[in-house]
Amino acid sequence: MRYSQSHKQETRKTVVRAAAAAVRAKGPDGVSVAEIMAEAGLTHGGFYAHFPNKAALVAAALAEAFGQSRRRFARMTEGMTPAEALTAFIDSYVSVEHRDNPQRGCPIATLTNDLPRQGPAVRGAFDAGVANLIARIEAWLPLGEGQCEGEGEDASAARRGLASSMMAEMAGVVALARAVSDAAMADALLEASRARLKTRAGLTGGAA
């Protein structure tokens, strides 16, 4: 049976969405093509009609995962000022809900340790997602006096450096909160990081 081009595109989207959740939950090496196809309600044999290999699927899954996060935060921050948007982003990212639901969360906090073992296509998709998220944080940073100044750096480089550092801390603390077995410690790590991130970004009255 021959299917229309629109049907093929919709089927591909279904596979990619299933892969985006599976890869975040189990890592690229912890999930098989057969498992992803079954989750999408399809047979393994149909895989090669959409992707040449597993690496291509994982790269598409990462792009979709980053896209899902980007769309979710765009809806959440619509109509907000940059400072309000950044505050909401920090509160949502560095949260118990994000910690407890890696399959729906940011790939950076979930997959960083898996990426060095992946090939160029997968790493390229991950790099693009990281760069996009850093740029979004940079655009939200307040322009208050002294917030993004650095010794010998222009303001743009200082802002990018702060955004990069904040992204690294956010992803790191979520990953750490998932790893520790003490729930109270995990909650305290998230709470402390949220407060410190807001101070560093100039969202509170404290010193950076």
Question: Summarize this, please?
Answer:
By secondary structure, the chain is mainly α.
Jot down its keywords:
0% strand; 208 residues; globular; mainly alpha
Secondary structure elements and their pairing?
Blueprint: H1 5-26, H2 33-39, H3 54-76, H4 82-93, H5 96-100, H6 107-111, H7 120-140, H8 155-179, H9 183-200
Notes on the protein architecture:
This protein has 208 residues and is mainly α. It has helices at 5-26, 33-39, 54-76, 82-93, 96-100, 107-111, 120-140, 155-179, 183-200. Helix 7 (120-140) crosses helix 8 and helix 8 (155-179) runs antiparallel to helix 9. The longest helix has 25 residues, at 155-179. It is globular and about 55 Å long. The model has no long low-confidence stretch (mean pLDDT 89).
Give the total of beta strands: 0
| Helix-residue proportion | 55-70%
Quaternary organisation: single chain
The separation of the N and C termini measures 63 Å
